[in-house]
Specification:
- 18% of the residues lie in helices and 37% in strands.
- It starts with 6 loop residues before the first strand and ends in a 24-residue tail after the last helix.
- A seven-stranded mixed β-barrel has the order 7-8-9-11-12-13-14.
- The protein is built from three helices and 14 strands.
- It is an alpha+beta fold.
- The protein has two domains: 10-72, no CATH class; 103-265.
- It has helices at residues 24-44, 85-104, 255-265; strands at residues 7-10, 16-19, 60-61, 64-65, 106-113, 127-129, 133-138, 144-152, 162-170, 179-183, 188-194, 197-211, 218-232, 236-253.
Length: 289
């Protein structure tokens, strides 16, 4: 520090303690007063024995440093150190990540092949998928629609990434906060891409349950048998492998985002047949008597 410079240091008592270039007697008196303030401050805000508060230390001028011995600290006082400033930022980031996750919903899906004719030694017995976006809404026919997706990009380009889309359409709304649904052939649709491997699935029969209807997040789970097909350039969509789909989800209400996912699952001939409510009847010409 430059000679003759003036230094003002803040103590733990939130008061400013000026140390001027004065006589040694005046400086000693100021140091004693500062020590008394430190003892009173530690009595109100104890720190671990032998440590010096960051806000109180050091009192410096021209190399002079005040150190408070451990014996001056109150006996029997101990408390955890104050969290460094960086921990506040980390906490804010965690809260932000939680809020962002709550705004898009989430899910956990398991795909289990149930073929009893052959078993592959290369593919996993259970394929786990964790969609990071899950939405629900009510369509024009009064059906409860749920859609979820997972998209993982690859540094090698889009052909090496992963995409998963699932839509679930349940007939009717819960009368209360919970309801069970029987799944049929139009209930569930899946599109899955892993690199150059494309598969699609449609439900056969199963069951689903939803709860917390009317709250911030709609929660539920399902279990259904489905038929899975694979795509190849030469043969197109082929195969009729049986798989078991298990899933849990927490969906937030967002019709616009959910309908985009539903439309993706119904491409290439996977369109759901109309329900009895949405089917329109057309009268033919009157019969001759």
């Amino acid at each position: 520090m430059a000679s003759g410079s003036r230094h003002i240091v803040r103590s733990v008592t939130s008061r400013w303690v000026p140390l001027h270039n004065v006589t040694p007697a005046r400086r000693l008196r100021d140091v004693r007063h500062a020590g008394a303030r430190l003892r009173r401050a530690w009595a109100c805000h104890p720190e671990p024995s032998g440590s010096l508060s960051r806000r109180a230390a050091p009192f410096c001028e021209r190399g002079f440093r005040l150190r408070v011995p451990a014996e001056l600290l109150p006996v029997g006082t101990a408390s955890a150190r104050r969290a460094p400033p960086g921990s506040f930022l980390v906490g804010c980031l965690l809260v932000l990540c939680y809020l962002l996750g709550g705004c898009t919903g989430h899910a956990s899906i398991q795909v289990v092949p149930v073929s009893l004719k052959k078993i592959s030694i290369a593919t996993p017995l259970v394929r786990n998928i964790t969609p990071d976006a899950c939405y629900y809404w009510i369509n024009e026919d009064g059906e409860l629609c749920i859609a979820m997706k997972e998209i993982k990009q690859s540094v090698l380009g889009k052909p090496f990434g992963k995409e998963f889309y699932l839509s679930l359409v349940l007939e009717g709304l819960p009368a209360g906060s919970t309801r069970n649904y029987a799944l049929n052939r139009r209930s569930l649709r899946v599109r899955h891409r892993r690199g150059y491997t494309h598969t699609r699935s449609a439900s056969l029969a199963g069951i689903a349950a939803v709860w917390d209807y009317g709250k911030r997040e709609l929660r539920g789970r399902f279990r259904t048998a489905a038929i899975q097909q694979s795509y190849s350039v030469l043969r197109g969509w082929k195969g009729d492998r049986r798989v078991l789909l298990l899933g849990e989800f927490a969906a937030v209400q967002n019709r616009q985002a959910g309908e985009k996912i539903l439309a993706r699952t119904e491409q290439d001939g996977m369109k759901r047949p109309p329900t009895s409510r949405s089917a329109k009847t057309v009268d033919g010409p009157p019969r001759e008597k």
